[in-house]
Amino acid sequence: MELLSKSVKYIDGDIIGQDVSQSDMFRMPDQPQKIIAKKEAEKDKHISDIRTQIESLRAINSKEDQRQIKKLENEIRSLTKRYVEQRKNIEAAVEADKLRFFCPNGAQERVIHSTVAGLRNSKIPVVLITCGNGVGKTTISVQTLANIVFGPQNGWFDYDVFRNWEFPKLCWYVSRPDAIADTVTPMIEELWSANYVRSRKYETFKDGKKFISRIETNTGWTIVFKTFNQDPGEFESAQVGIIVLDEPAPEAIWKAVKSRRRKGCLTMLPMTPLYTPPYIVDEVKKAITAKKNGYYWIKASVHEASMKTGVRGHLDHETMEAMIQSYDPDEIEARVHGEIMYFSGRIYPEFSRELHVVEPHEYPVNNRCNFIQVVDPHDSRPCACIYLAITPAGMIGKNSRIIIFDETPNDEYSEQKGLEFWEYKKTIPLEDEVKNWTQIEEKHRFNRDLIFRVMDKRFGWQKRGRRTFNQLFSDFGFYFSKSYDSPSDEGELMYGHRKVKQMLAKDEEGMPRLVVYSHCRHTIAGLEHYIRRRKVGRAGEDQAEADGQIVEKHKDFPDIVRYGVVAAITPIEKRGKSEVDILLDKIERDNYLKQKQGFTYDDY
């Protein structure tokens, strides 16, 4: 206890920089290694000055000078011994109470500030944390939780919202079973324990599980550890004050936990950018864009944790650089820079808002164009519909171009305004669908009889009761052809993807062949979210990303873009016809030519 007592004295006096008192606990501690380095530099300078004195005395070399030299040499030994003792005591103090002497790096400090701002501005704040490896997202989550559960433990957390907690004193910490057992609960036991701090006590329980499943504190808090493989029904019937989703939760669990926040709740989302799913990113990004109170997204590079390049960094810079060199090049953006990589599986990575999203005056549409309407009908939501214009060569640059210039549902006609298409929950009557399409066609003032209309060949020709969607829409004067069959052996999907990619590419003039008007937000969002699900864990280690399954919920508008592009590049006489129909047409034409002229074009 003597060493510990000295340690606390040194750490308070040196790191906090004040005399020991109750209020000094709430000053902001600096990094122990920085203080140690500062003391070592002071020691080295003092010793250097003494050695200079010794050299001067040796030049004179009198008996009195020899006695003075021995005295100075003893002072050097004493300084060295004192520095070693101070260093040991500082290290021992930090080890003894890692909450009191925690010093966040710059990124972690932003998490603290965002949490404080969120709690002040909202009763249900959400803080998304996506950082490069080594920044310390789990550490700051555990530290923040402790400074709420036990009140502020040092100056970095000395805020009113940590002192006066107004929400339920129940925390759900949710992660993978191995992360809870191997990382989270060991970190809590390491950081929260301090035998001499009587105000900070807790008891752990396994409740029949292999890992700690519950913590009860002397401050009235209960921390319950849950896993992502639990049934979503187990995330019901409780009012929770803090929810920590350490790594991405399945969407069903994410939806379930949000209903547990009725009495106020802080939600922290520390996640590996490699696997952060779009439903979380989209929700947070949309809320921030709409300036909703309480939503924050902290994104940080591992360079912020470097002792050389970061603010109060803790990682050795050379070690960090060697670590970066070992990463898979495809994962650098996530593991180093904290960029979301779930969308690295995008099927159309060529698509970008900067290049392909345009304004009407940049790519005008007029009656010189050919027009195509493409529809994917639905039972449970409105039809996905786009309108395309095919410009003649020379109208916009040398080449013909495809312009997606309108879509439904749109915010002008929709009751579900502002939602992403995959968030729509109800359909609309066919009469309203047709009314919306008619309004678009009348607005653009083109000849409706010349519009080529395409519908998904599967769903559009399945019977709904006694009739198909195609038949139902024909009653309103909208006559559709079936979406394409692949003209080759590569398969319908691959053929369509390849053709869309060709249109997205720049031509010799540096212009894309396919563009989208900026107000067609469902088309734009669909193309951005059209992805193959990343394979995670052992089952996916040996599988290429291209082999992943397409995420169904985002594919409606990309599907009709694909149908539209293939229709646009297909000769008019082949549009809407299957390979069998095209072959039969060819046979009929060849027979006709043989009868009339005695030869076919294939004879030459």
Question: How would you sum up the global shape?
Answer: elongated
Strand order of the largest sheet: 3-4-5-2-6-7-1-8
Got a strand count?
Answer: 17
Count of domains: 4
CATH class of the largest domain: Alpha Beta
At CATH level 2, the architecture of the largest domain is 3-Layer(aba) Sandwich
CATH topology of the largest domain: Rossmann fold
Count of helix runs: 18
In whole angstroms, the N-to-C terminal distance is: 102 Å
Assign the structural class, choosing from mainly alpha, mainly beta, alpha/beta, alpha+beta, or little secondary structure: alpha/beta
**Radius of gyration based on Cα positions:** 34 Å
Please indicate the percent range of residues in DSSP E strands (runs of 2 or more): 5-15%
Q: How is the main sheet built?
A: 8 strands, mixed
Quaternary organisation of the protein chains: single chain
Q: Give the helix level as a range of percent.
A: 25-40%
Average pLDDT confidence is 83
Low-confidence stretches: 1-26, 536-547, 599-604
